[in-house]
Design brief:
heterodimer, A: 365 residues, mainly alpha, two-stranded antiparallel sheet, 15 helices, 56% helix, rod-shaped, B: 108 residues, alpha+beta, three-stranded antiparallel β-sheet, 4 helices, 13% strand
Chain lengths: 365, 108
């Protein structure tokens, strides 16, 4: 009798599995009928007679019932007519995985600065996997969700189309990506090594496990809870490395285009002796013997200039009157230099000529 | 001739006819069909047909507790089912007489 009861349970489980793509409410109704039927039949069975002999295999029974009831063939899902629960474990787990992967991408971009941020997606992943880790390697329930089916449809375009060829090509690159991913994660671990030993250990472990996770996820979808976020982390780290490098490049190029602050703000220099007398034709050099040149270059004063080769570091520089084509030097101010020699150059600022009263202009020729 | 093919088209009618007399649960319907002469009717086909007729609104169901095993779900025909059965009977009669006529010609 006990073996018979087991046989009934086994038979009903087989049927339930063969009908599991139908709406849960409908399956419950069918099983209500069928379990009474199978239980009654099992009491009528003779010696050595099995349910299978009387009814065929559970799959055959389910197939015949489907046809008679007008259900679609297996794997095609009926539109849910009965009220189904909106939030199920598989759905919560699938969304948990998706959100955790997104968060990992963002966290990965900040992981080098603050590795502890990886705890956020980590906790989310553990919780969502805990919901479905007992639901088998194929995670059929998640694969049957409408949203996952939609994604699958996108990922399986019609054969022969460019999209299909592109996807096939990308899929062939997958093993290469697993290696690249391990490399990026390894780089992240190395960059963390000097600053955060715990972060280094965690990221290094992820890098090593990720090599195995790729192929594993092909046969056991539960590995996706590792593989997908690992990819997101690798991409996030890549973003961060690019960001840092780009910043460095921008910084160094800024330095190149702006040589020195002093020459940036002055276009002419007026030197005075201790008596407040303006010194002409002063040659300025820095500690290395290089000429100190103000930003504006000396362009010469035309063919009639008596000194066509005036060095660029000779101050004060002649001012060029472009309208008349003549060169002349300008004294910044008649009164300021003697009274306040230190402040006068700065008070005249970057445009010493503008502070000069017109009367002080004295043509050099 | 393989009667299982013929049966597919008329099983609805046969099940409705059996329930017209009296309410019944699944296995009960199977047994009554067999007792009526439809020996080849499959258990699963009858259960599937019951579900389809129920979903189409021609049957109602109620559960009767059982002491020995699982509860039995009884099906009973409603007005929609009765109307459908009457229509089916008319269709069947005219179809059968048409086919009889054809077979008479062949025999003659």
């Amino acid at each position: 009798m006990n073996t018979q009861a087991l046989g009934v349970e086994y038979y009903l489980a087989g049927m339930r599995a063969a009908l599991d793509d139908l709406p849960p409410g409908e399956v419950a109704e069918i099983m209500e009928d069928v379990s009474a039927h199978v239980a009654e039949l099992s009491t009528e069975l003779g010696e050595n007679e099995t349910l299978e002999q009387r009814l065929g295999s559970p799959e055959q029974y389910a197939q015949e019932l489907r046809q008679a009831a007008g259900y679609p063939p297996r794997t095609e899902r009926l539109p849910v007519t009965t009220k189904g629960k909106l939030i199920t474990r598989p759905r919560a787990a699938a969304w948990g995985l998706a959100i955790a992967t997104g968060v990992t991408l963002l966290a990965g971009a900040a992981a080098l600065r603050e590795p502890a941020i990886l705890l956020v997606p980590g906790v989310l992943l553990v919780l969502s996997l805990a919901l479905v880790h007992d639901r088998g390697a194929t995670q059929q329930e998640i694969m049957n969700l409408p949203e996952t089916r939609r994604i699958q449809q996108w990922l399986t375009p019609e054969e022969g189309t460019p999209a299909e060829r592109a996807l096939t090509y990308l899929k062939s690159l997958q093993p290469a990506w697993w290696l690249v991913r391990a490399g990026l994660l390894g780089l992240g671990a190395v960059l963390l090594a000097g600053r955060d030993i715990l972060g280094f250990l965690v990221v290094a472990a992820i890098a090593i496990i990720s090599v195995f996770a790729g192929p594993r996820a092909k046969v056991d979808r539960r590995w996706l809870w590792f593989s997908l976020p690992a990819s997101a982390l690798a991409v996030g780290l890549l973003f961060q490395v690019i960001d840092v490098t780009a910043n460095n490049l921008a910084y160094s190029s800024r330095n190149q285009s702006y040589p020195a602050p002093m020459t940036e703000t002055y276009e002419n220099i007026y030197a005075y002796d201790e008596n407040g007398k303006l010194l002409n034709n002063v040659l300025l050099y820095d500690q290395d013997g290089n000429p100190i040149n103000a930003q504006r270059q000396y362009y010469g004063c035309g063919g009639s200039d008596p000194q066509p080769m005036i060095p660029a570091n000779r101050y004060p520089r002649p001012k060029i009157d472009y309208e008349n084509g003549t060169c002349y030097t300008v004294t910044p101010s008649m009164s300021a230099p003697s009274s306040t020699p230190r402040t006068s150059p700065s008070s005249s600022g970057s445009t010493p000529s503008s502070s000069v009263p017109p009367t002080s202009v004295s043509p050099s020729k | 001739m393989d009667t299982s093919q013929l049966l597919k088209g008329v099983l609805d009618m046969a099940v409705l006819a059996v329930l017209r007399k009296d309410d019944g649960y699944g296995y009960d319907v199977v047994r009554r069909l067999r007792a009526g002469g439809l020996n080849e009717v499959g258990d699963a086909s009858v259960y599937g047909t019951l579900r389809r007729l129920y979903n189409a609104g021609m049957l109602t169901s109620y559960v009767v507790p059982s002491e020995e095993g699982p509860h039995r779900k009884y099906y009973s025909i409603n007005e929609t089912g009765r109307v459908r059965l009457a229509e089916s009977r008319e269709t069947w009669r005219s179809f059968a007489s048409t086919l009889d006529g054809l077979l008479e010609e062949v025999a003659a």
